[in-house]
Amino acid sequence: MAYSVSEVNHMAAELFAANPTFNRIEVYGEISGGKLYPSGHYYFTLKDENSTLSCVMFRSAYNRINFTPENGTKVTLTGNATIYEKAGRFQILVQDMNPQGVGDLHRRFELLKAELRKKGYFADQRKKPIPQLPQIIGIATSSAGAVIQDMLHVLRRRFPGFKLHFIPVAVQGETAAAQIAQAINIFNVKNQVDVIVIARGGGSIEDLWAFNEKIVADAIFASEIPVVSAVGHETDFTIADFTADLRAPTPSAAAELIVPEKSSLYQMLEQEQEQLIFIMQKQITDAKRTLTNFLDRPVFTQPKLIIDQKRQMIDEIHNRLFREFKYQTIGQKRVILDLRERLGLYINNILRNRVQEFNNLEAKLNALNPFAILNRGYTYVEDVEGKIIDSAYGVNPDQKMILHWYDGTAEVKATKINLKKIRNEND
Q: Could you count the other beta carbons within 10 Å of the beta carbon of residue 58?
């Protein structure tokens, strides 16, 4: 039985479709002869050292990949093995494609991501707030790329006069991760910046891999200064993005996020000023209204009338008090008079006793008073220094002395001293 060409090609296509091995197969090789058509479909040949394989990637699948395939790129693709019946050509309808080695990188990425999430690296409660108006910005990125220039352009446009500390680092390659981590540590040791930005442009997962290394995540996690991750494009996500205190979709977006627009600040200040003026004017108006209400009260409009009323009330209260007081005093008057009489007798009796006691004490004091004897014609003698001389033995020739009487003194001088011999009782 003979078959037409179309029938053979159709049977071959059905065989491939019925075989589950060919329904979803992974193939790796090198791209050759790739061409992107205006329709958005990408046609290419996948080859190795010995064979070639026709491949087609339709627009919907092509738009999902995050790199641009080029001739010579080694890739791993996933698709369906089919027969293109019209040409009888064996081909792969590609559903997904990644540079070779990317699969391993994805697995490493997911493993590290799960490990760090378990350790709390991504927890929202540990993320530090970004200052609303940082005085000094720290940026770590490549000095050769356009990233730093784009960021500077945005920063100058939004907030002229900002201050920047820049540490150039490699953002791709074997030493990139260590340099990025070291830059974060240097910013923390010097403690001169208010926020740190680590940045680079877009690329494949291999290009961005330095920002997926644990050493970078550890440096971000340990940083006392808030860290902003601005790596790749909006669709790119790295371990640094998850660990950072803020993830910016692009480096330029990071510049917009960390500094406000100065003109907007001025506008906000003007609005705040207008609002404050409005509030103050309202408060003044309310105060005037309150004052007017007070001034309309009788205490201000008819103060004399109110005072007269209060005086009348005082008089009434005074009369009531006076009557009450008079009523109370009439009943107590006799008691008070009786108490006064008894108190007078008691006081007089006490005074008589105290006078008698005083006279007795005065007589005793006068009897003991050494100066009282002067009234009977006696004197006493002192030297010029006021020391009493009680014996002739205490007088020296020509010594000046003072004689004291009850009514005055006289200064004398010893012209002659006559001493009497005093017999000792023991003789």
A: 14
Q: Which parts of 104-194 are beta strand (E)?
A: 136-141, 163-168
Angle between helices 214-222 and 176-190 (to 10 degrees): 10
Asked if residue 279 lies in contact with residue 257, where contact means CB atoms within 8 angstroms, the answer is no
pLDDT tens, 262-288? 666 666 777 888 888 889 988 988 888
Record the pTM: 0.46
Reference 148, options 174, 124, 168, 127; nearest CA is 168
CA distance 126 to 137: 21
Lowest mean pLDDT among 37-41, 100-104, 328-332, 387-391: 100-104
- CB within 8 A of 67, min separation 6: which ones? 98, 99, 203, 204
Residue 167 has which token pair?
């540490």
What is the helix (H) or strand (E) element at residue 26, kind and residue range?
strand 25-36
Of 271, 250, 264, 268, nearest to 158 by C-alpha is 264
* Cα 427 to Cα 215, 330, 422, 424, distances in angstroms: 124, 89, 11, 5
Q: Phi and psi at residue 276, in whole multiples of 5°?
A: -65, -40
Classify residue 289 by burial, with Cβ atoms within 10 Å: 0-12, 13-18, 19+.
exposed
**In the chain, where the domains are located:** 5-99, 105-260, 373-413
Distance CA 320, CA 308 (A): 18
In the chain, the amino acid numbered 160 is P
Average of per-residue pLDDT across 303-318: 78
Cβ(246)–Cβ(229) below 8 Å: yes
Q: How far apart are CA 239 and CA 121, in angstroms?
A: 10
Closest to 217 in 3D by CA, of 236, 190, 191, 198: 198
Q: How many helices (H) and strands (E) does the chain have?
A: 12, 13
Domain 5-99 fold: OB fold (Dihydrolipoamide Acetyltransferase, E2P) (2.40.50)
Do 160 and 266 form a contact (C-beta atoms < 8 A)? no
CATH of domain 105-260: 3.40.50.261
Q: Which has more confidence, 263 or 127?
A: 127
Provide CB contacts within 8 A for 204, sequence distance 6+: 66, 67, 99, 102
